[in-house]
Design a protein that fits this description.
Blueprint: H1 2-8, H2 12-17, E1 20-26, E2 33-36, H3 39-44, H4 48-53, H5 57-61, H6 67-71, E3 87-92, E4 98-109, E5 115-123, H7 125-153, H8 157-169, E6 176-182, E7 188-193, H9 197-200, E8 205-207, H10 213-220, E9 224-226, H11 239-243, E10 248-254, E11 262-268, H12 279-307, H13 317-334, E12 338-345, H14 348-355, H15 357-373, E13 380-385, E14 388-393, H16 399-411, E15 417-419, E16 422-424, E17 428-435, H17 445-461, E18 467-469, H18 472-489, E19 497-506, E20 512-523, E21 527-529, H19 531-541, H20 544-565, E22 573-578, H21 580-584, H22 588-599, E23 606-611, H23 613-617, H24 620-632, E24 635-641, E25 658-661, H25 663-668, H26 673-688, E26 692-695, H27 701-709, E27 714-715, H28 726-735, H29 752-756, H30 760-765
Parallel strand pairs: 17-18, 20-22, 22-23, 23-24, 24-25, 25-26, 26-27
Antiparallel strand pairs: 1-2, 1-5, 3-4, 4-5, 6-7, 6-11, 7-8, 9-10, 10-11, 12-14, 12-17, 13-14, 15-16, 19-20, 19-27, 20-21
Helix pairs in contact: 7-8, 7-12, 8-12, 14-15, 18-19, 20-22, 22-24
Bound molecules: ligand C2E and magnesium ion (2 copies).
One magnesium ion is lined by residues 516, 577, 609, 639.
Length: 766
């Protein structure tokens, strides 16, 4: 049979050399083989003889999954059809290997009318493997892409890990995937995602050592392939992985910037499912996870930084406001009051100044745990900045409880703080505000903090080291301030501001040398308001800036008018008050220069009075402001001296020309021995520093006599004149009655004539 067929193929030798199997066989699953070329042995391991002897062999060798497809063409219908489609199917070789065949044949009847296939079998295994690899790699790439997309959309690591194992688990041939995280001790890997509850019953940990496949991947950083768990001698199979019926596995490290996060592994029910071609995919997935975890950790660190105070580690104001808003939200449902304490250390600046900033920082750090120790677990302590702390007390019974807690917190300061080996006693002023939302009152975090701040301020005002509860009266005050601010906004435009002028007298001669401009507000309903009624509001709201510019310009023009009125006399100086906020403003010197230029006032005739508390703040911008003003040639006067904390020794650091002794000291003159001694010391020191001294609030002759005895240069007060309308000053200038007549004779009166024509400073230099 074989021989006869061979004669049908005259070019047999060429056929024998083609890299394909040429054949002729009868139709049907068990059709007889008439010819099959010798290459069959090379490709399938069976000789042509074995085929010719066994008609059922071919069908038996076809892969069971492909059999239907392969046999579908075995039909008479194909007879004479010249363009039958080639068929692809897998066949087993004699050794059990799988090869892909492409079968291309035509069915024709032989001379006896028997249908015979004349065909060619190509070995397309290589192409097929490449194709399958491509498919697999495309599917893998799609998984990585989708994973990357999810990682960007959702930063939550927990959800991302679940997504990752689900996506990877959907791949062909992958039974399941797992993510393991290195434990804190570095000795175990804990399962974070990938197994269901049944598998988890057998344990969610593996060793991070080299005896486990995941541990080895973690330790070496090199991917680990287990071809067949039943044959593997290197690793013991994790019970959970065994429970799910894995036969082969691949594990890669999920690496982090500082330390590895853990391991990602995939498992298959087929042996040898994974090879090095799968590594890049799994590594890419692991990298997506690593990046996402890294990003999440960075986000968290950033969030922590944004919401916490670096010095004490406490939540900061931002975070406090958040928590308070939440608490208020809950309270609006539950109805229980929410309380906050606003705590400010007393004289913290003194500690900072005398012991240094490091000691100040150490104190703030030591305060934090003390506050915590006196609170309940749910309460929140935050640092607002500087020496200010906020405490949130959720679920209060009533105001009394808030006060009791505040007292307890205050008691935390009964023990001294040890700094640089020395015990220091530090006190705190505490403001309390309680929100009761059940009574229909609505509030928000900022408003409540403002109330507590106001109460704290009241505690400071009433002597520090105490607690004050924000009450209805304070609320009314706060409301009034808001109203005042609203009305003050339009006051300049409505031309409601006015200036009064209080003459400043040379105490030796009685001559008026200058005038202090003092602002007033003519309110439509409330009448003429003093600075005490609105300057504080103007400072808090920033309105003091435009008001200040208005005052300066108005005062400058006014004093020039008075210069005109008495051209032969020494020109009067005008003094204008500046508040701390104005001094801290960067544009101050430029504004003043502009006003001087616009009005034409000589800078030596402009005095700017700056309250002493500006120095206590000692801010860089304030100092820069003072220096810039001095450059302009205007004179700086330190106002309200004695009410702040600035020591006299400190004064020569600033370009002051004069200092004004506060009214409270002048009040004591002739009444209190100690007060007189202080004034005497101040005048002596000022003289040593070449500063003029002005006494304010002189109301009687006793005070005047004392000041003259102490050789105080200048004074102002009701004894001479109160603050007067400008028309009145003009009238007095015209009448020549401005100067103070009856100055009693004193040590300096002899050379009064000479001195009145000279500024005081030159006298001292002489
Ligand atoms: P100050 O600069 O210390 O002004 C002196 C205050 O003492 C003035 O009160 C004045 O009327 C008052 N006074 C003067 N002599 C006597 C006296 O013999 N006895 C008593 N009991 N009081 C006397 P005033 O005008 O109410 O001003 C209060 C404060 O308001 C000023 O204190 C100053 O710090 C501030 N101020 C006034 N005008 C302005 C302004 O235009 N801008 C700024 N920023 N602050 C101003
Ligand atoms: Mg003043
Ligand atoms: Mg004053």
């Amino acid at each position: 049979m074989h021989e006869s067929t061979e004669q049908n193929w005259p070019e047999g030798r060429i056929v024998d050399r083609l890299p394909v199997i040429v054949y002729a066989s009868e139709l049907g699953e068990n059709g007889r083989w008439r010819y099959i070329s010798p290459q069959v042995e090379e490709i399938l391991g069976f000789t042509p003889e074995e085929f010719l002897a066994d008609p059922g062999l071919w069908a038996r060798l076809v892969h069971p999954d492909d059999r239907l497809r392969a046999l579908a063409v075995e039909s008479r219908d194909a007879l004479g059809n010249r363009d039958t489609r080639p068929v692809e199917y897998r066949m087993y070789t004699k050794e059990g290997r799988v090869v892909w065949m492409l079968d291309e044949a035509v069915l024709e009847a032989d001379a006896h009318g028997i249908p015979v296939w004349h065909g060619v079998l190509y070995d397309i295994s290589e192409r097929k493997t490449a194709e399958i690899d491509l498919q697999r790699s495309l599917a893998q790439q799609a998984v990585v892409a989708r994973l990357g997309e999810r990682a960007l959309k959702n930063g939550d690591p927990e959800a991302l890990m679940r997504d990752a194992v689900n996506l990877i688990g959907e791949l062909d041939g992958v039974e399941f995937a797992c993510i393991w995280e290195v434990g804190r001790d570095g000795r175990r890997l804990n399962l974070r995602a990938g197994l269901d509850d049944t598998a988890l019953a057998s344990g969610r940990r593996v060793s991070a050592g080299r005896e486990s496949h995941a541990g080895a991947a973690l330790d070496s950083g090199v991917p680990i392939i287990v071809g067949d768990w039943s044959e593997d001698e290197r690793f013991s199979m994790p019970p959970a992985v065994r429970a799910l019926g894995a036969t082969s596995s691949l594990a890669v490290i999920i690496d982090g910037k500082d330390r590895p996060f853990g391991v990602l592994d995939v498992h298959s029910a087929e042996p040898r499912r994974f090879d090095p071609k799968d590594v890049p995919f799994l590594e890419a997935s692991a990298n997506v996870l690593a990046d996402a975890f890294e990003r999440h950790a960075a986000d968290r660190a950033l969030r922590h930084r944004v919401l916490h105070d670096a010095l004490t580690g406490l939540p900061n104001r931002l975070s406090f406001v958040d928590s308070l808003d939440d608490a208020l939200g809950r309270a609006s449902v539950s109805g229980s009051p929410v309380g906050i304490l606003f705590l400010d250390l007393d004289h913290f600046k003194l500690i900072n100044d005398s012991l240094g900033h490091h000691a100040g920082d150490a104190l703030l750090r030591a305060v934090a745990p003390r506050l915590r120790a006196h609170l309940r677990p749910g309460d929140i302590v935050a640092r607002f900045g500087g020496d200010e702390f906020g405490i949130l007390i959720d679920r209060l019974a009533d105001d009394a409880e808030a006060v009791a807690i505040a007292e307890r917190v205050a008691a935390a300061f009964a023990q001294p703080f040890s700094m640089q080996g020395v015990d220091h006693f530090v006190n705190a002023s505490i403001g309390i505000a309680v929100a009761r939302l059940a009574s229909g009152q609505s509030t928000n975090a900022e408003l409540l903090i403002r109330d507590a701040d106001a109460a704290m301020y009241r505690a400071k005002e009433s002597g520090r080291n105490r607690t004050v509860l924000f009450d209805a009266e304070m609320r009314a005050t706060a409301a009034r301030r808001l109203e005042t601010e609203r009305e003050l906004r339009g006051a300049i435009d409505r031309d409601e501001l006015e200036l009064r002028y209080q003459p400043i007298v040379n105490l030796r001669t009685g001559e008026v040398t200058g005038l202090e401009a003092l602002v007033r507000w003519r309110h439509r309903e409330r009448g003429l308001l003093d600075p005490a009624d609105f300057v504080g509001v103007a400072e808090d709201s920033g309105l003091i800036e435009p008001i200040g510019r208005w005052v300066q310009e108005r005062a400058a023009r006014q004093i020039l008018e008075w210069h005109e009125l008495r051209p032969d006399d020494r020109p009067l100086d005008v003094a204008v008050n500046l508040s701390a906020r104005q001094v801290a403003h960067r544009g101050l010197a430029a504004n003043v220069a502009e006003i001087l230029a616009r009005t034409g006032l000589d800078p030596v005739h402009l005095r700017l009075e700056i309250t002493e508390t500006v120095l206590v703040e000692e801010s860089a911008s304030a100092i820069a402001s003072l220096e810039a003003l001095n450059e302009l040639g205007v004179r700086l006067v330190l106002d309200d001296f004695g009410t702040g904390y600035s020591s006299l020794a400190y004064l020569n650091r600033y370009p002051f020309h004069a200092l004004k002794i506060d009214r409270s000291f002048v009040d004591t003159l002739g009444v209190e021995q100690e007060g007189t001694a202080i004034v005497e010391a101040v005048i002596g020191m000022a003289r040593a520093l070449s500063l003029d001294v002005i006494a304010e609030g002189i109301e009687n002759d006793v005070q005047l006599a004392e000041l003259r005895r102490l050789e105080c240069d200048y004074g102002q007060g009701h004894l001479f004149h109160e603050a007067l309308r400008p028309e009145e000053i003009s009238r007095m200038i015209a009448a020549g009655s401005l100067d103070y007549g009856p100055v009693p004779a004193g040590p300096a009166s002899a050379d009064a004539a000479r001195i009145t024509s000279r500024p005081q400073r030159s006298r001292k230099v002489e």
